[in-house]
Amino acid sequence: MKLGLIGENRAVEFFIEKKYQIIQRNWKFNKYEIDIIAIDNKELVIIEVKTRTNSLQNIKEIITKSQQKRIISAADSFIKENKIDLDVRFDMILVEKIIKSYKFTHIKEIFYPTFD
Question: Which pTM value belongs to this model?
């Protein structure tokens, strides 16, 4: 199984344990994809999953500006298509494979939608 898919599966388990309601995985809009869409309390949470075997990169720089725009565009489409009326939050989870275990770094509100 590919590392990315393993990371996404582990991330879903992590969020279920935290009582998030997973409503969609790998939702596609044109060529864009949202890894996990969930509800946390009364917020729609758009979650980008990054899986690594080492985390040398600055965690806040993992999601580029162009990726942010694609995620925001896909999220906007999902919200309109499903007529969702909730506050929206953009999170990221870094899943690090360390030997035979996993370390999770969940960052809430990793970015905010900007209107350029």
Answer: 0.91
